Structure of Hydantoinase/oxoprolinase family protein:
Amino acid sequence: MNSPRVRVGIDVGGTFTDAVAVDASTLGLLGQVKVPTSHHHEDGVAHGIVDALDRLLAQVGCAPEEVAFLAHGTTQATNALLEGDVATVGLVGIGTGPGAALTRRLAALGRLQLTPGKRFPLHYAHVDDPSDAARVRAAVEELRGRGAEVLVASEPFSVDLAEGEQEVVAAARPYGMPTTAAHEITSLYGLHKRTRTAAVNAAILPKMLATADLVDSSITKAGVTAPLMVMRCDGGVMSLDEMRRRPLLTVLSGPAAGVAGALMQERVSEGVFLETGGTSTDISVIRRGKVAVRHATVLGKGSYLSALDVRTVGVGGGSMVRIGSGGKGVGAGLGKGLGKGPGKGGLTLGKGVGKGSGGGSGGRRVTAVGPRSAHIAGLPYACFATLEDLRDARLVTVSPMEGDPPDHAVLDAAGGRYALTMTCAANALGRVREGDFARCDPAVARAALEPLAAELGTDVAGAAAQVLDAGAAPVREVVDTMIRDYRLDRDAVVLVGGGGGAAAVTPHLAAGSGLEGRIAEHAEVISPIGVALALVREQIERIIPGATQEQILGVRNEAESAVVAQGAEASGVEVEVTVDPQTSTVRAVATGATELRTQDRAHRADAGERLRTAAASLKAEPDAVRVLAETDAHTVYGTESRRRFLRGTRHPVRVVDADGVVRLHAPDARIETTTVAQAPEQLARLVRESTSYGDGGVRAPALRLLLGSRIADLSGVLEAQPLLALARSELRARHADDPVVAVVEVRT
């Protein structure tokens, strides 16, 4: 029997289920299949998952036992909440005296709007003393009689004293109903938010448990021995058992799969990921090599669900063109330049030159693109027709759907009615590379835009530019906002496009914004690739006022143990710890692969290639860039730049891995090399010398350590002693003479 060699990712969408096979060593794509999502099969979506897996393994010639990793992402939880298809929740509130008043108010959760015209199905019962088993049973029976299918137990301060909730769960267990204690879902304070999060989690439990059981048994019957993982909404994966406990973590996991693909396949360290479909573009951020997450809004209220920060714009590859009269053309700042350069995953888009093509004053112009798409309107794209189909084409404006404005431009031609879309314009302007999913015959695309160009009083290139300017403008606004919100280093930001419609948005946006951009390799299946490459992830949060270094290390170790328990290889686990002094929140995020990844890549960058990559990222000439430190896995490059309007010099740094990919950037950093044996003393000195003092208090520097193949990020800790304690924990179990490179940034 061959050793396991294939990683499989399956993305269950609303219409199709996509599956990919990735080589576990090279991480190269081996095969991909698409099957209809089996919503109406007796086994539900599990049937489509197994169908896709069988076809995929046959395509790549792989036996089931050769699968080293298998994970799937699903929109089922998201769809259940959007469609209101959830179980009725029975909430058992616990407390006496003032505590009882707090918990009784939780009955108001039943007034939350689930969908338009439908309230969240929740019934409330109260228990004064959770140790009174008879009273608990009476409350459970009362809730069952009112239609409850699942139970939640909630008590004030249960994150510190969980016994009351645990007693209710134990007393309810004989009734056979799925039961959740609120403190098991999140350990953060805030009774209403914690209970609301637990109640929504419980509402989707029955549906998700049934699906989990079907998928698990089906995969086992298929002969796959690798444990089944499930995509989370924060860009990682979790074990099936963890999904059974917290299915809410799969909500919004669709966009998370795409950004995981950009992070793992495209190796982006600082950038914006744009996943474009036919109707919309999901925009998310990668900062310092990590996806940006925040607590999500669920049912219109805040929650403790940590999910990808994704912002959606109603512009996609199928978005329809809208035209009107008068005014100046949109997008005057969006350029038309297109260049080639070194970049992973195909075409790299250069910085824009020139300005967008606006319509003439007082004439017809493109006023907007979308949000209506050709798919929803039931119209084919004009650019995917034939020249014969477009014979005698005449431009008319229509209302594609009832209630739409009558300003949507379509073609009535020999072959019927066709929509003019972003994809048509991108092909006409040469933005879509050969072999791209959205590529069409450029001659057909230009023919499709000729009637529009005549109406606008310009040529085909000018008309195409107007369309792309109008579509890119709202996307650019969100991208600029996210760059500001997350304080990304604009000099290092790269735009990465994914999804089948990526070529309709990302190239033109990159050309006009002055940012580097590229289309991800295999962009149309970037989501299942992200599922296949995702790491096991767990986040532990605790509110600990005045947290000691022992308490911080305890949270860190809890996160590490959690991912190991879910199947991550212990020696490869990385943990990032953040301490927020304003909220007293200690947060540890642990990630790890289910097997030691001994990558055998076909290409390793030589010293010259790594230097050129670093110089390009630093916006400097190669002869102005120096090697500051080296390990077996990374090379640290730096240069100098004068500060504007200020005295002094900055020392920007880039850390480049053996594949020639920038893994870490710092706008102004100090680099020191030491060994594991000497590191504790050297790091203490570095932290002491780099600590800043000001009105905001004393702040330790942002510290990152290059250790073997890892970059240990300790930048989330602001106090010196906990920072050094975490550094010592990272050095543990390493040889005394192993090299350690410290990247130190003084906080301003």
